[in-house]
Design a protein that fits this description.
alpha+beta; 410 residues; single chain; seven-stranded mixed beta sheet
């Protein structure tokens, strides 16, 4: 069966989006969400497969900037809205879209592509490596207590409407973004994603609620959440469902968590996406009653190996020759010398020298943000050491002291 791969026109948008909706279960987006994604998406960065008048495949790429180790914001393609109609599976449509998309990303001068995977098994063959983990929590607040740092009582909490607090919350987010690799730097319009709250997505809970933390008149943190009421024979068993929580200092952070623990008629807190090193796990009295669940988060694909490796900083001096395997983007394949100084600044250039390490671009993407150890990858047989000590040298240089994390979906 022949299909046409092309960039959708503005007139194609509803048909294109309808294909995506059908592939993800057939539930239409709410009008609010449809309008928001239409605003954020760019047709010129999207692709569609067409079988006559019917759209049977979709893929998009937001224009992002993502924080990398060292705090720099690197241009990145935020891969999104990938689907193939059930009637057209196993015909090469996905591969052709991924091929065209990575060619486009390269032409746009974006050295990395990133995505959140609905099905993790799909993207490894296209060179994407799982670079971050996210933590899900369900905390039994009837039994768990918090250890509070000094200064918590000096934090003022104030409830505001999510829309009214948006500028203050975004200012906190912007200050925190350079400190954690994997964090997208918000582009214009993306702040609306944080307050998008269609009734159909509330699962019986309240509308979104926002509480600000303040110290000396300055907003130092925020939390957005909803309450899902529940009762049983013993009384109230409501759940606090946290969407986002961020703070600039330990006292504000702890004050926000203390507030959540104390919400009336609730006995649990649920969080779907927190960093793997979330500090709340150091404050709780009983981590076993927090039901910690780790899962894959952000996937990273190096589109331009040299530019990507030069964009980040390194934890220790490094001088390594990497032999990179990349069948899908052959311009990356071959040997690269990575040389970095004591300040973490590195150059990465083509070389004919003998390789110290050999690995695929997928493993290089997994290690890129500093959250996946090259030692672990080598132990799994995914990194081959040609010079004794090269894995240890590379693992130290690539590591970072803050776990990478992508705090929102796209």
């Amino acid at each position: 069966m022949n299909t046409e791969l092309r960039i959708p026109s503005v007139a194609d948008w509803d048909t294109w989006l309808g294909c995506l909706e059908l592939a993800f279960g057939g539930v239409p987006l709410t009008p609010e969400s449809r309008e928001m994604y239409a605003t954020l998406s760019r047709p010129d960065r999207s692709l569609g497969h067409w079988d006559g008048e019917e759209c049977v495949g979709t893929a998009g790429a937001y224009a992002f900037q993502v924080t990398v180790p060292g705090g720099a914001a690197v241009p990145a393609a935020g891969v999104t809205m990938v689907s193939v109609a059930a009637t057209h599976r196993r015909q090469g449509l996905l591969t052709s879209m991924m091929r065209r998309q990575l060619d486009d990303v390269r032409s746009w001068g974006e050295p990395i592509a990133v995505l959140k995977a609905s099905e993790p098994a799909i993207y490894g063959r296209f060179g994407y490596g799982a670079a971050t983990q996210e933590t899900g929590l369900r905390i039994d607040t009837s039994l768990v207590r918090l250890a509070l740092p000094p200064g918590t009582d000096g934090v003022r909490l104030r409830r505001v409407s999510p829309a009214g607090a948006l500028d203050a919350c975004e200012a906190v987010y912007a200050r925190l973004a350079p400190g954690r690799p994997g964090t997208p730097v918000r582009q214009p319009g993306w702040e609306q994603l944080a307050v998008n709250d269609p009734a159909a997505h509330r699962e019986g809970g309240s509308p979104l609620i926002c509480v600000l933390a303040e110290r000396d008149g300055e907003v130092t943190g925020y939390v957005t959440y909803r309450v899902r009421p529940a009762w049983d024979e013993a009384g109230p068993r409501g759940t606090v469902a946290v969407r986002d929580l961020a703070a600039l200092d330990a006292a504000s952070y702890a004050a926000l968590w203390r507030f959540l623990f104390g919400i009336d008629l609730t006995s649990s807190i649920e969080c779907g996406n927190r960093p793997a090193d979330d500090a709340v796990l150091r404050l709780v009295s009983d981590v076993r009653r927090c039901e910690v669940r780790l899962r894959d988060g952000l996937y990273v694909r190096l589109v331009d190996v040299g530019a990507a490796l030069e964009a980040r900083r390194y934890r220790a001096p490094v001088d390594l020759v990497l032999e990179v395997e990349d069948d899908f983007c052959p311009w990356n394949a071959g040997r690269w010398r990575l040389t970095g100084d004591a300040k973490g600044v590195a150059s990465c250039r083509r070389t004919e020298d003998r390789a110290d390490l050999a690995l695929s671009v997928r493993e290089l993407g997994a290690a890129y943000l500093g959250g996946v150890s090259l030692t672990s990858l080598a132990s799994a047989g995914l990194v081959r050491e040609n010079r004794p000590g090269a894995v240890a040298e590379a693992a130290l240089a690539f590591s970072w002291d803050v776990a990478p994390w992508c705090p929102h979906e796209f």
